[in-house]
């Protein structure tokens, strides 16, 4: 018989899917590094991860089959009526939102930040506005993270939509079981609701701390807007090999040192260490926690 899925089944399904998607991504990483080289892998790693996500959900959700995680806990996707399977259009809409929206948002924010930091002068943008927009970029990233945490806390209360994409697409879950379901108070559901209360309390506390810090530092922020822009590097300095990351071949951003002394972008070397715990240049073994971020090392740009 069918019944509405509980919190535990949906979470376990998500964890199992994440495990197999991670395995698929690691296999694609090994193949791409062997065929394209580490530099090209660093350049296209986000697109390769996108390809892995699209491939996994195309072969399962789009084709009308359960994902490995859904099959593991014996749950089935249904529409808002809880009586019919999602239509093909609804499944396509779900996959596009779930996979493409985070990728597109990440790309747009990164492009906007790089555009503001580019050595080309933006004469149409006042210096104060440019500084303000640069300070808004991390706020936007934090807001996205906050929305995800808020949605997760809401899931702990309702037990319906674990992913934001499923909420927009109207895709629910029902559980199939051969055993007769017993009615009565569900202790596990109450436990998840308590977890939801704690999650919301943590979110409110985080917002309060950020608001307090912003209020305390408002004078410093105003002064920083009024400062004159620092001199920019000329083309010869930007193109200097000493300022380039050996992985992405671009000017280093957030310079980070390995224990062996080689310098890379923080994002580049951190992504590399997640897959291969060794220096890309000398192959000396290293762990992500041994990376040293060099504060105030990058020249003004």
UniProtKB/TrEMBL annotation:
GO terms for molecular function: ubiquitin protein ligase activity; zinc ion binding. It is found in: Peroxisome membrane. It catalyses: S-ubiquitinyl-[E2 ubiquitin-conjugating enzyme]-L-cysteine + [acceptor protein]-L-lysine = [E2 ubiquitin-conjugating enzyme]-L-cysteine + N(6)-ubiquitinyl-[acceptor protein]-L-lysine. InterPro entries: PEX2/10, Pex_N, Znf_RING, Znf_RING/FYVE/PHD, Znf_RING_CS. GO terms for biological process: protein import into peroxisome matrix. Keywords: Membrane, Metal-binding, Peroxisome, Peroxisome biogenesis, Protein transport, Transferase, Transmembrane, Transmembrane helix, Transport, Ubl conjugation pathway, Zinc, Zinc-finger. Pathway: Protein modification; protein ubiquitination. Its EC number is 2.3.2.27. Residues 245-283 form the RING-type domain. It is a multi-pass membrane protein. One of its GO terms (cellular component) is peroxisomal membrane. Its main location: membrane. It is an enzyme of class 2 (transferase). Belongs to the pex2/pex10/pex12 family. PANTHER family: PEROXISOME ASSEMBLY PROTEIN 10, PEROXISOME BIOGENESIS FACTOR 10. E3 ubiquitin-protein ligase component of a retrotranslocation channel required for peroxisome organization by mediating export of the PEX5 receptor from peroxisomes to the cytosol, thereby promoting PEX5 recycling. The retrotranslocation channel is composed of PEX2, PEX10 and PEX12; each subunit contributing transmembrane segments that coassemble into an open channel that specifically allows the passage of PEX5 through the peroxisomal membrane. PEX10 also regulates PEX5 recycling by acting as a E3 ubiquitin-protein ligase. This is RING-type E3 ubiquitin transferase. The lineage of its organism: Eukaryota, Metazoa, Spiralia, Lophotrochozoa, Mollusca.
